[in-house]
Specification:
Chains A, B: It comes from Elioraea tepida. Chains A, B: It is an enzyme of class 2 (transferase). Chains A, B: This is Aspartokinase. Two copies of one chain form a homodimer. In chain A, α1 (16-31) packs across α4 and α2 runs antiparallel to α3. Helices cover 34% and strands 26% of the residues of chain A. In chain A, a hairpin with an 8-residue loop joins β4 (102-104) and β5 (113-116). In chain A, the strands form five sheets. In chain A, strands 3-6-2-1-9-11-12-10 form an eight-stranded mixed β-sheet, with helices on both faces. Chain A has a four-stranded antiparallel β-sheet with strand order 13-18-20-19, sandwiched between helices. In chain A, strands 15-16-14-17 form a four-stranded antiparallel β-sheet, with helices on one face. Chain A has helices at 16-31, 46-57, 63-70, 72-87, 119-126, 152-163, 197-205, 213-222, 275-285, 314-323, 325-328, 355-365, 389-399; strands at 3-8, 35-40, 92-95, 102-104, 113-116, 130-134, 137-139, 145-147, 168-173, 194-196, 226-230, 238-241, 254-258, 261-270, 290-295, 302-310, 332-336, 339-345, 372-376, 379-385. Chain A contains 13 helices and 20 strands.
Chain lengths: 406, 406
Amino acid sequence: MARLVMKFGGTSVADLDRIRTVAARVKREVDAGHEVAVVVSAMAGVTNQLVAWCQALSPLHDAREYDAVVATGEQVTSGLTAIALQAIGVDARSWQGWQIPVATDGAHGKARVQRIEGGELIRRMQAGQVPVVAGFQGLGPDNRITTLGRGGSDLSAVALASALEADRCDIFTDVDGVYTTDPRIVPRARKLERIAYEEMLEMASLGAKVLQTRSVELAMKERVRVQVLSSFEDKPGTLVVDEDEIVEKELVSGIAYSRDEAKVTLRRVPDRPGIAAAVFGPLAEANVNVDMIVQNVSADGTTDLTFTVGKADLARTLDTLRARSGEIGYAEVSADSGVAKISVVGIGMRSHAGVANTMFRALAARGINIEVITTSEIKISVLIREDATELAVRALHAAYGLDAAG
Amino acid sequence: MARLVMKFGGTSVADLDRIRTVAARVKREVDAGHEVAVVVSAMAGVTNQLVAWCQALSPLHDAREYDAVVATGEQVTSGLTAIALQAIGVDARSWQGWQIPVATDGAHGKARVQRIEGGELIRRMQAGQVPVVAGFQGLGPDNRITTLGRGGSDLSAVALASALEADRCDIFTDVDGVYTTDPRIVPRARKLERIAYEEMLEMASLGAKVLQTRSVELAMKERVRVQVLSSFEDKPGTLVVDEDEIVEKELVSGIAYSRDEAKVTLRRVPDRPGIAAAVFGPLAEANVNVDMIVQNVSADGTTDLTFTVGKADLARTLDTLRARSGEIGYAEVSADSGVAKISVVGIGMRSHAGVANTMFRALAARGINIEVITTSEIKISVLIREDATELAVRALHAAYGLDAAG
């Protein structure tokens, strides 16, 4: 017997038939003797509609009212799912964030979970009842409804799994797991049986949009075992776990790519203390998310600084930098939207030399030029021309032996 | 300066444009120096959709889950209306039933308000903030959301007006007041400036569906002055007040009619104690609402018993009576769906003789036969053939001098 949290996203509860399917899936686990808590998102499309209404009434609306409005999506699904479970003989009841409560900080619209009071839910699960928890929402210190930001239902599920000391948190979604790379690019991509939290974080933030990044961070911190699996097919997904649980560590677990970034280069920036802060401070204030940052050794007292930002933020980035050109003192700023970022991710590379060289050789063999390189402990990222993305991903997938047999 | 509760129904908040219109209306009262609390219904159609979903998943669904689901309609409107108010510079915040709290009993789906804690709202109104309260909902003793039954937002508004000691409770709706009769039948029907609670009760339950009956009862009990007015036109509506506030008491305030009732007659029922209970007890258990009841003096130890039920309940009524025919011991049961009920209502008739006779003569003059008569202190009702409804209403409206000067 295990204690499970089962989380169903918007497409999994998009209409009454799918809610019935969800109920049947939950019943199967209950019948198998498990203690089950369910977390649900809003029915697909509902949250967008509610957000659009708030936006239309006032672009700069009160985040507390936004929270009261958008949290209703999950409230509806929690009640309907409880009804669907009861209809097939499963004892169930809905729980709203304020009822449990899921205590959060007061940052309405993007609140952080501080504490979930799990005692009452555990008692009811032990007595055979299935709590159906409205995801995405909590209760702020002002006794008002808070929401956790887009994708927040994953976070609700992981936080609840931690509070309930669940053996596993199953995230049901419209993909059946985490793949070595995008199967649309590499048909021989393999579904990973297991992936380490750290790898998942790198994969998630690199565009393999399976799990919300914050929920992976929380799972890693609280050591919650997460499974990503399909709500439409009945087969195991990918387990996201501590690397200690991964016996056969692969050198490289996956190849990720992103075409959403643009490269910005500041030439001949004076090489003095505080210069990075002078560049990136104003960008942070302008709400620009900076990803890769590369600074090379200087020559004659100046250096070149290259970094990437989201393509959507590029205009704002350039405006900000030009407004501060006097303070920063660069000779020239250039931007390039025609790049793609390709990353090789794997906890195994920590203990192995030569991983980077395999990458560079594979790309060179296809005549792909590398413009920028950054590395972390478990990741190597390069910028290349955007039109070489597919070629690069396929080459690397093969070079690291990730192609499925067949 | 007055303290006002302004309640807006589903058609008044049906879309974002109407919500903006509501906000502008509220702002006008705030600008005039009044303290204002707002109560809102769900956007038109939303509640029906939510109810249909619960129904489709399980016809006999858990009323507690139903409440969690359907209460979201008002939650959305309260948040959106607060945003719309803020957008035009009015300090406002939404309040859910559980936040105030609006304490109810535990009868989920049709809960009764027990107590509203008004102190915090009054303090905020005095400080210039407009509370926007989600109607129709409260908090049960089980710490779960309750709803007050269909039309319950009127009840929320009246109960809130009582708790806030408001000077008036304005019910904005899609009609501009209470008329002497249905203007579709009598074009010269007049809008009443004032109507007594007791009259409004008789008018409301007779089919002038302007205000939910329970909300009128509560207003009468708590002496809340209620105004019914249009949310689309800017003019005074009808004040529902204590009869002491009505200086010029009219003999008859209005003519009401209902085509929704069917007549049932039990012939030769034994005239003995307990016979009425034997008939109406089982009907109550079968959830049949009985309206008029007439029993005439008996002859040779039996009597005829006539009553009316909703047409939709007629089949169930006859089934119930036939199943109990042995216990009741009637000779024959007959039913007639071709009737209409016409009622003359007015607090003035208490102190005046001859009101009934005016009615009987007016109907006789048009050759309309009266099948059944019942009277109360402020109402005379008759059953006639359904096809004479319009003729009867027009004749009575004229006979009591209610026609507007043309």
